[in-house]
Amino acid sequence: MQKDRKLLAKLEDLPSPYKLERLSTPYKIWLYLLALIPMFIMVILMFVNTEGISFEGASFTFSNFAILKEESVLIALYNSFKFSFLTTLICLFFGYIIAYTLYKSKLKHKGGILLLLILPMWTNILLRIEALSYLMQPHNIITNMLGIEGVDILGTDLAILIGLVFTYLPFVILPIYNALEKIDPSLEEAALDLGMTETKKFWKVIFPLSLKGLVSGSIMVFLPCFSGFAVPKVLGAGNVLLIGNIIEQNFSNMNYNIGSVLAVLVLVIILGSILLINKFDKEGETLL
């Protein structure tokens, strides 16, 4: 009886849902100002002809959607899908190997190793890409120290692919590792007791249970690769255009109507991918 009273007293001391909801108010304000309101404005700009973002003398039109038929946009969409797909496959392959090796290791400080893997993400992405672009030129600090001639791949598809994998590989490792860590060890023991080999145990037990991490990681890589423009702009040296580069160019040139059409198109793809994540990982366990 006394234990029940103590438990009830602890429950009464917990903050109410209303108090917890108030803590999210700054985030909601931030979301409305920097996400929802601009998105609403872009949807409007899709259907009007304007000078800049001034709606004075604006007229309703569907002509802005003609941009979707232009060859440059179609090529950029193809490049975006191509690089995003290839980057996702490469990141999933190496990310799974790294995450699984770490999961199976007997190391005590796995969290520290994970921290080292994601540590580059704490630095500015432009600084990392600029440093990488320098190494892709025939003369750089490493080639000068070794006295050899380096490779010149800057401005090629290979340079962009290397840059994307280098940038987004940690986004795959973390969700896959989290999914592996949540697997009950007794399931692996039961599989071995039933006569499975290590290979069969992996494909019949471990891999299916880690699919949440694979799906979450693939989406976390595919989306920024598809919509980003910094990596192809720096490493592509203007030779390869992705859809993000065309959007950036239109907004830089104050062609907001065309830019909004392309930006909303990318947004629809992103929202569809988020729905896919929710289908496979409704509680977001692998993203923690």
Can you offer a commentary on this structure?
The chain is mainly α and 288 residues long. It has helices at residues 2-13, 17-23, 25-46, 71-104, 110-118, 125-135, 141-146, 157-168, 170-181, 185-193, 198-209, 211-227, 230-235, 243-252, 256-280; strands at 48-51, 54-60. It has a two-stranded antiparallel sheet. The model has no long low-confidence stretch (mean pLDDT 81).
CATH topology grouping of the largest domain: MetI-like fold
Rg, Cα atoms, Å? 24 Å
Mean of residue pLDDT values:
81
CATH superfamily of the largest domain: MetI-like
Strand content: under 5%
In CATH, the architecture of the largest domain is Orthogonal Bundle
Mind summarizing the main beta sheet? Answer: 2 strands, antiparallel
Q: How many domains make up the 3D coordinates?
A: 2
- Side by side, the strands of the main sheet go 1-2
The SS-based structural class is mainly alpha
What is the share of helical residues? over 70%
User: Care to count the β-strands?
Assistant: 2
Residue runs with pLDDT of under 50 for 5 or more positions:
none
